[in-house]
């Protein structure tokens, strides 16, 4: 389903510190109302045993709850205005863990950059934040197969006056370019010849939209899904058609999934079995569709492919 892909130059951090709604900071502030829940979620869990493949799944079944690391990012994983955990990754996790015999999931909100360190330090059991799978991260955690794939798109002023449709256009037309903190789009722009020092880095899609609307930049690059969601109410900006960025001259497609500690292969493998069932039945799309995902975001990519192996 996905076009050919190659791994981008991950000397620059991968994307997935992105939002299509309120900023990560405001969303994290909103979870303060959870009080004791947040405090309980931040407690450390027991370390993995010496059992081959780990025994975390058995312990989660006994506990009846799995702790999910989230980054307060719409539509990937966040606390809604009613104080409820939702997003594409948490909703999918609820279904899969239920099938695995774990009745509940509990959010542990943190900054996106703290997700992998938090997982390693036992603050939660799994990262459920739609995290992009890339070789650098695959050296630190193990991933489920991706539950979605993602192309890029731009926020531009209405009518797209500069005719910006890909990174080549941005470079050739000397457009003022912006993207988000830690986004994969930084690497894609640099690969096409855009000077990294000339890129305006903003916190998220909302800030990117504001930069385009105010004329500070000509274009903001993000994921197709979040870009098309954030411009819906704008009278000054629009989203371009989705496209696959070129990496080493070939189209590249990103994919996001769940991250586990390296020694918990039993849990990861059991999770993958249920994920594949959901893909085959079409239930995966039904779970993700309320968050803006379409058939175009469904994928047969594997974690092994995205890890570079």
TrEMBL record:
Q: Where is this region: Disordered?
A: 1-21
Q: Which residues form the Solute-binding protein family 3/N-terminal domain?
A: 65-295
> Which keywords annotate this record?
Signal
Matching InterPro entries: Ectoine_EhuB (IPR014337), Solute-binding_3/MltF_N (IPR001638), TAT_signal (IPR006311)
PROSITE patterns the record matches: TAT (PS51318)
Check the record and name the Pfam families matching this protein.
SBP_bac_3 (PF00497)
| PANTHER family documented for this protein | ARGININE-BINDING EXTRACELLULAR PROTEIN ARTP, MEMBRANE-BOUND LYTIC MUREIN TRANSGLYCOSYLASE F
Q: What is this protein called?
A: Ectoine/hydroxyectoine ABC transporter substrate-binding protein EhuB
This protein's encoding gene: ehuB
């Amino acid at each position: 389903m996905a076009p050919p892909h190659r791994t981008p130059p991950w000397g620059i951090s991968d994307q997935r510190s992105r939002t299509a709604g309120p900023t990560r900071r405001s969303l994290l502030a909103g979870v303060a109302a959870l009080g004791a829940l947040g405090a309980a979620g931040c407690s450390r869990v027991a370390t993995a045993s010496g059992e081959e493949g780990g025994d975390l799944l058995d312990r989660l079944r006994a506990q009846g709850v799995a702790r999910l690391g989230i980054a307060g990012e719409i539509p990937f994983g966040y606390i809604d205005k009613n104080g409820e955990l939702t997003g594409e990754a948490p909703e999918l996790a609820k279904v899969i863990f239920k099938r695995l015999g774990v009745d509940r999931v509990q959010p542990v909100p943190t900054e996106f950059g703290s997700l992998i360190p938090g997982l390693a330090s036992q603050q939660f059991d799994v990262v459920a934040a739609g995290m992009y799978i890339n070789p650098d991260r695959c050296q630190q955690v193990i991933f489920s197969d991706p539950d979605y794939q993602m192309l890029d798109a731009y926020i531009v002023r209405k009518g797209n006056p500069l005719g910006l449709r890909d990174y080549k256009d941005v470079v050739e037309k000397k457009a003022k370019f912006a993207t988000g903190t830690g986004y994969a789009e930084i690497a894609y722009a640099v690969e096409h010849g855009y000077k990294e020092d000339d890129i305006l880095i903003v916190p998220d899609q909302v800030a990117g939209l504001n930069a385009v609307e105010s004329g500070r930049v000509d274009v903001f690059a993000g994921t197709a899904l979040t870009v098309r969601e954030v411009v819906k109410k704008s009278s000054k900006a629009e989203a371009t058609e989705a496209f696959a960025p070129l990496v080493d001259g070939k189209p590249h497609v990103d994919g996001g999934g769940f991250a586990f500690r390296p020694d918990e292969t039993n849990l990861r493998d059991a999770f993958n079995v249920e994920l594949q069932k959901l893909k085959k039945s079409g239930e995966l799309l039904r779970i993700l569709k309320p968050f803006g995902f379409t058939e175009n975001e469904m994928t047969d990519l594997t974690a092994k492919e995205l890890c570079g192996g």
